[in-house]
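Reply to dn_fold:

You asked what the input looked like. This is it:
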Amino acid sequence: MEKNSEMDVNRWVEERLATLSPDGEWQPNATRGLARLREQRGAGSGRGRRWAWAAAAATAAGLGLMALPAPRALAQRCLNCSAALWQSLSASGPVRAGVKPEKDRTMAPDFTLNDVSDKPVKLSDFKGKVVVLNFWATWCRPCIEELPSLQRFHDRFAAQNVVVLAVSEDEDAKAYQQFLKKEGVRFPTVRDPEGKVSQSYGTFKLPETYFIDRQGRVVRKIIGAANWMDSELILFMEQLLKMDQLLKG
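and this is what came back:
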């Protein structure tokens, strides 16, 4: 009887793992998950420490599952969840990289992703505009916290050929669409569930934002959540627009 029960459990586990059906070309991205975790800091309170232990346990589970062929997709989810936990515990503010001199600006990697209507959106289609490229996810608490000010930032500069383009790393398309509808997000959003675009940019922490000039070159990078109505960011955008206008003229 006990043996039959054990066989039933094993069959149930195998059936659930089979539904994951990872792509044959899929490769675990432990480096990306760990890179994100290294940038996070746990909260100092007792509650924060308990959540930190939970994040550490999720990470350990994810790395352990990476060694097995069947539950690889589940392992990646474990790493993503642990990254989200660490981000929610982070007490640090945004890291703002300096503005790149004209000669040091490099072309932003181009990409094509589908928007909420399943229409393809290409970064190079925005050439001639200043693009604020924001990598985020609905499960990332700092991303959600900065969203209202990012929306106001977009509204303030939209008439000046500035566009906020948000790239979500959500795997759950339905939850992603419901969130956009609930929050009334007005700037363009696309979804990259595999995180390939963020990898091409070297992104390791969500949210992460890149300023791209009218020529399609990366001007500045911000790591972490920001108050987008901060006077420093407003002034920076105004100066960037003036510089690009002078170059254009």
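Helices lie at 2-18, 30-38, 46-66, 72-89, 141-157, 173-183, 196-201, 231-248.
Hope that clears it up.
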